[in-house]
Design goal:
Elements: H1 8-23, H2 25-35, H3 42-53, H4 61-70, H5 80-96, H6 101-118, H7 123-139, H8 144-161, H9 169-196, H10 205-232, E1 234-236, H11 239-263, H12 272-293, E2 299-301, H13 305-327, H14 330-336, H15 351-369, E3 388-392, E4 401-405, E5 411-413, H16 422-428, E6 433-434, E7 436-439, H17 444-447, H18 450-456, E8 458-459, E9 461-464, H19 469-478, E10 481-484, E11 490-493, E12 496-502, E13 520-525, E14 528-532, E15 550-552, H20 563-570, E16 574-577, H21 590-598, E17 602-605, H22 606-609, E18 612-616, E19 621-625
Parallel strand pairs: 5-7, 6-8, 7-9, 9-10, 14-15, 15-16, 16-17
Antiparallel strand pairs: 1-2, 3-4, 3-18, 4-5, 11-12, 12-13, 13-14, 18-19
């Protein structure tokens, strides 16, 4: 019996769903956000928004840290792996409704088409949707070799949309996860059934679904672990256990969240009942994260380097080829023994074809790893993989410093003057959303661009010292939360640690000199350190953070009687001065430049060199100018 093809009306319906979702993205997303918060405790509500919409910025820091250490962060960040897993787990439900395979596939694609705009429809989410949709096509193709070929086509399509995706860690993890599922899930599933299903043939129903889920989870974990270790120099020893324990609750939590978000689109449809069912599932997943993420031994610092990455994936490739032969015992053979349909080809991938496809995937992965910028005079456009990028943006006579840590949302220190072009600079850097904006002090050259920034770019939080009423109103009107910070507080973004060194709380009182109350931050990324002085000159603040790699010179390079002594203490290798060309203040002053030269500090200035970019990698830093 031939499987019916999707009818033209059905395909037209899929297109209509996607089109309507794209046209009404903001409204749909706002209603979904509200619906996912009704009738649930705050922690579970924010987790639901993270699961369904990728909105993880308001999840409390302790829970975020638990998920990170347990290797469950992918659950609250929309990714190709999440989209693919969600769609694959939908297949049994659709099959239970009696929907034929090809029509099931169309409905899964319709689900993804509706989900992408619901999750924000930004470039990152679009990449996840394309990768997930094409991966579903790959996994549901006839032969395994065809599925692998389709996955490589999926990679090509996403790279054709934007070649910079290749340097994106999320893209690489999505590719590796799906590749791991294609190559490892089948033998793992067979091994699980053989171990727990006994000699019976035709294991079906919940047992088969559980075996599928476990095999996919183990496969994706194995395939992504080397990349995580390479990029983040860390390894979660409990990630496999955490994912397996969370697995039974993940799919129901995703689906209940999606249904609640859908209910929020229908006037009068209460999502509370769905949320009441979902809250215990989300609480269970959070407890799994806490149980498996909080032990001191659950998260280890590791360094495998490029050679170690290649060797590790070569070993995984060898296992993918050899494991089916090892597992082909007599009772496994009896489970697999089925008479092939007339005219059908064997679906087993031969060793030669497997090796060729594995090598193709390995070569592609290595090529993607090489896509990050490396030395040279050309201004880099893509953020470095697994490292930190710091951009001292050329915004004229003002400050705007962008920090992009791998695995976390960017942070912007100051927004430059009005009309300084900070929004355009962020767009050029590929930044769609900021985890935080720090306003060092409320003067036009540092905070003048905040209104336009908040209107154009998503911001999770604004952190500030002393600011005036007008700036407060601009922030509050935008709906962005704000907090006052002072010396002794620490801000984190992934592995980036920002410690506020100045001002002390007593300097925040009204009437204080805004420059002398400007926030000073020490930024640390692994062994790299940087001192950002705002407009607080060394003569006004007793700063002694120890040696640093980069100094952002205070107050655009104005005269500073304390600079000489500060340089003796911190001994920077690079100094950066943010100043506007031809500014009327004479910044940077000859005295400041002479002091830096006397200490043999390499000095770059935005008025002459343009945007200054520092890319920090493993034990090295690269500087580029001219952006």
């Amino acid at each position: 019996m031939r499987t019916p093809h999707p009818s033209p009306p059905l395909l037209a319906g899929v297109v209509a769903i996607a089109l309507l979702a794209f046209l009404h993205t903001d409204e749909i997303r706002a209603r979904a956000t509200a619906a996912l918060g009704e009738g649930m405790p705050r922690r579970e509500a924010e987790l639901a928004r993270g699961f369904v919409l990728g909105q993880d910025e308001r999840i409390d820091p302790r829970t975020v840290e638990d998920f990170r250490r347990a290797g469950l962060s992918h659950l609250v960040a929309v990714s190709g792996q999440n989209v693919a897993l969600l769609a694959l787990l939908a297949m049994p439900f659709l099959a239970a409704l009696g929907i034929p395979l090809r029509m099931r596939l169309v409905w899964v694609l319709a689900l993804i088409a509706a989900y992408v705009p619901l999750a924000g429809a930004g470039p990152t989410i679009l990449r996840a949707g394309v990768m997930g949709a094409l991966s579903i096509l790959a996994m549901l193709a006839g032969r395994r070799s065809s599925r692998l070929y389709a996955l490589l086509v999926a990679a090509g399509v996403t790279l054709a949309i934007d070649p910079r995706f290749g340097a994106d860690v999320g893209w690489q993890l999505s590719f590796a996860a799906v590749l791991g599922i294609l190559l490892l899930a089948a033998p793992l599933r067979a091994a699980i059934i053989a171990r727990f299903g006994g000699p019976r043939s035709g294991v079906t129903g919940p047992a088969a679904t559980a075996a599928d889920g476990a095999a996919m989870t183990i496969s994706a974990t194995i395939a992504t672990a080397p990349l995580i270790a390479f990029h983040f120099e860390a390894f979660s020893t409990t990630t496999l256990l955490a994912n397996l324990l969370a697995l039974p609750a993940v799919a129901p939590a995703m689906w209940l969240g999606m249904l609640a978000a859908a209910a929020g689109q229908v006037p009068g449809a209460p999502p509370e009942a769905l949320n009441a069912l979902n809250a215990p599932l989300l609480a269970y997943i959070a407890e799994v994260a806490a149980l498996t993420g909080r032990p001191s031994w659950a998260y280890l610092d590791v360094r495998i380097g490029g050679a170690g990455l290649i060797v590790t994936y070569a070993a995984i490739a060898a296992v993918a080829v050899l494991a089916p032969r090892v597992l082909r015992s007599r009772h496994l053979a009896s489970l697999r023994r089925r008479r092939p349909r007339r005219g059908a080809r064997s679906r087993r991938l031969g060793p030669g074809g497997a090796v060729a496809l594995l090598l193709s995937g390995l070569v592609l992965a290595v090529g993607l790893l090489a896509a990050a910028p490396r030395g040279g005079d050309e201004f880099p456009r893509a953020a470095p993989m697994g490292g930190l990028r710091v951009s001292f943006l050329d915004v004229g006579q003002g400050d705007a410093i962008l920090m992009q840590p791998a695995g976390a949302e960017p942070i912007l220190v100051d927004a430059g003057p009005p009309g300084g072009g900070v929004v355009e600079a962020l767009e050029q850097a590929g930044v769609e959303r900021l985890g935080a904006v720090i306003i060092t002090h409320d003067q036009a050259d540092h905070a003048g661009g905040i209104g336009g920034l908040l209107a154009a770019v998503g911001v999770s939080e604004v952190l500030h010292a002393a600011i005036g009423r007008r700036t407060m109103e601009l922030i509050d009107e935008s709906g962005v939360s704000r907090s006052r910070i002072h010396a002794g507080l620490v801000v984190r973004a992934g592995r980036l640690r920002l410690e506020v060194l100045w001002p002390p709380p007593e300097r925040l009182m009204a009437g204080a000199d805004p420059n002398h109350a400007s926030i000073v931050v020490e930024a640390r990324w692994r062994g790299f350190s940087m001192l950002l002085c705002g407009d607080t000159e060394a003569e006004a603040a007793p700063l002694d953070p120890g040696p640093v790699d980069v100094l952002k010179v205070a107050h655009h390079g104005s005269d500073d009687a304390g600079l000489d002594a500060l340089l003796d203490r911190i001994r920077p290798g690079l100094a950066v001065i943010s100043a506007g060309a031809g500014n009327p203040f004479g910044h940077p002053t000859p005295t400041t430049l002479a002091t830096l030269a006397a200490h043999r500090v390499q000095t770059l200035r935005t008025d002459r060199d343009g945007t200054v970019v520092v890319d920090v990698g493993r034990g090295s830093a690269r500087v580029a100018t001219g952006g």
